[in-house]
UniProtKB/TrEMBL annotation:
PANTHER family: EXOPOLYPHOSPHATASE (PTHR30005), RETROGRADE REGULATION PROTEIN 2 (PTHR30005:SF0)
Domain Ppx/GppA phosphatase N-terminal: 31-302
The protein, known as: Ppx/GppA phosphatase N-terminal domain-containing protein
Gene3D superfamilies for the chain: 3.30.420.40, Exopolyphosphatase. Domain 2
Domain of life: Bacteria
CDD domains membership: ASKHA_NBD_PPX_GppA (cd24006)
Organismal lineage: Bacteria, Pseudomonadati, Bdellovibrionota, Bdellovibrionia, Bdellovibrionales
Pfam families registered for this protein in UniProt: Ppx-GppA
Length: 303
């Protein structure tokens, strides 16, 4: 007996949906379809504090399509959650209400701890964590969640307001560019360093785990730029090499020569530098990329 469910992740850089079948017998979860709409809520929220009219209209149209998909694919239950950008938007309740009116879909605005818990749930189903101490890094558009696990048990999680879209807006506001990224990172190092130090001081991590679209993209870039496989993990040395190669290319070149999407080409270097910074702080040499994220965690939460 299986039932069809869908999960919607309303992030700061995009809105993503996944439709899956849940079954009481193995393999328990079968993914039917994934969708991604490049709706950058973070641009408005991190510059003006609210979701603007134009972005609101695009989001409404996206949710109309998602509601039609739910109907067409006979989805029995849909869970939609909003993260960093919505958490901070002054008009978040108007947004939630507008989406409900046009699509019938109810949005939950979740905090960073719940976000970390759901992503950890997805990772736990995909990566064997038994007997390992791990650090999970989820790079979003508005925030970064850093979660520590001892075996499959989550022991600490913290959300930092240093997501990729937020970093871009911060650079633009201060008339800086990518070459100034380390200045922005430096402003978060004390708080980030404290969280890492508290959790790895006497017990270092065996490896890091990276989630989010940018991490998956970095795995593919390892194959494309460095001609090394597999794409499912990156060493710190390889990450540094990828950053150097990307920095040598303009955003236009990243789109034309590497085939990156427009809304990936401008955030990929901030994402890579964030991961590099966190790995250096934790003194870990390897990051595993399981290609799961918040949507997968939402699906499992309905199991």
């Amino acid at each position: 007996m299986s039932r069809r469910v869908s999960a919607i992740d309303i992030g700061s850089n995009a809105i993503r949906m996944m439709v899956a079948d849940l079954s009481e017998t193995a393999p328990f979860l079968h993914i039917d379809k994934k969708f991604r709409a490049p709706v950058r809520l973070g641009h408005d929220v991190f510059t003006s504090g609210s979701i603007g009219h134009d972005v609101m209209e695009v989001a409404k149209a996206t949710f109309r399509r998602f509601a039609e998909t739910n109907q067409k694919m006979q989805v029995q239950k849909c869970r939609a959650v909003a993260t960093s950008a919505c958490r901070e938007a002054k008009n978040r309740q108007d947004f939630v209400k507008a989406i409900k009116e046009v699509s019938g879909i109810e949005i939950e605005i979740i905090d960073g701890t719940e976000e970390g818990r759901l992503i950890h749930l997805a990772v736990r189903k995909e990566v064997d964590l038994d007997g390992k101490k791990t650090m999970l890094i989820d790079i979003g558009g508005g925030s970064v969640e850093v979660t520590f696990s001892q075996g499959p048990k989550m022991i600490a999680t913290k959300s930092f307001p240093m997501g990729t879209v937020r970093v871009l807006e911060n650079l633009a506001k201060r008339k800086m560019n990518e070459s100034h990224l380390n200045i922005i990172m430096g402003e978060f190092l004390a708080e980030l360093g404290e969280h890492i130090y508290q959790n790895v001081d006497h017990d270092p991590v065996d490896f890091a785990i990276g989630t989010g679209g940018n991490l998956e993209c970095l795995g593919q870039l390892k194959v494309q730029l460095l001609k090394r496989t597999p794409s499912t993990f990156i060493t710190l040395a390889e990450l540094t090499e990828i950053i150097d190669r990307l920095r040598a290319l303009s955003i236009r070149d990243r789109i034309e020569k590497l085939g990156l999407r427009t809304d990936r080409a401008d955030v990929i270097v901030p994402a890579a530098v964030l991961v590099q910074t966190i790995m250096r702080q934790a003194e870990t040499e390897k990051i595993v990329i399981p290609a799961v994220g918040l949507r997968d965690g939402l699906i499992w939460s309905m199991f």
